[in-house]
Give the backbone structure.
Amino acid sequence: MISADGAEALWTFSQTFTSSFQASCSELASRLKVADAGSVHSIAGEIQALNKRLTEATGRLPSYDQRQNELQLKALEKSLEELRSSTTGKTKFAFKRKVKISASALAETATPPAPVNAPAISTSTISSPSRTISNHSNCYLSRSCPSCPSSSTDHIEVSIIRISSSILNLLMTTNESTLSANTVSLSALHIRDIQNSILILGTVDGSIMLHNLTNCVVVAGCHQFRIHNSTAVDAYLDITSNPIIESCDQVRFGVYPSELKITTDQQPVVTKNHTKFPFLPQDFSHIRATPSPNWRALEEDELVHDWPLSETNYAVQLERALPRPKI
């Protein structure tokens, strides 16, 4: 059986590897879009190197990550073959390519939304600075913490570390949502060491990775949600894949609250009943046919409806909304 330290090391490796691998895939995908015949050989070598990296990491990655990385690699190989075909000068290949779906559309149909969108976002975060929110206690934090006023950056990656007894609200204001051209979007969130806090994260274009949370509420829309080594967490999600928990207990799930989901017309969107969410959490610490004892759905009388969207009386709302772990 893997020790706690061993499990922690594997988790850290998988997150580091996947982030780096996706960034490399994204860079190659961007280069393939503008590459010419002279670039085929070098790009092919880099794809081969990525293939070797993934093969060497096999066995140390969760099966979900392994599969997504493999799909990204296959999409790159297909794009490379299309580039080779278009630069050979053979008429039959040129004609065939014209009647096919475009390369971008083909990538979308060949690959699930999460792996395609997440790497594409990573490209912008490579050239743009990330943001860190850390070391806050007993306070109300708004979206102004990670926002960047520079118009040169469309997406930023944010790390949220060591927050306690606080509320973090990253929802866009009405003015921000109506001026979307100037809005900085969140491409990914890395969250660690949070206690007794509410995280209203809004919509994230890519993934949210959480580690070591205790007695917290998390509200988010994202492509991928993974939480590790956490206790007593209520997660309200709008997600395109199944959320993953590992080494967790007392986790409760619900759908993204209709009170917080806003359209471009600023009208609330009616969602399904919170106890019948359209996803199935996966517990990597309970790979059995029996239901996991580490998570359940939030009941109707357990749902939060009065969300703390301003600093006024936030401490009272914080205490009221926290799940309070069982001892």
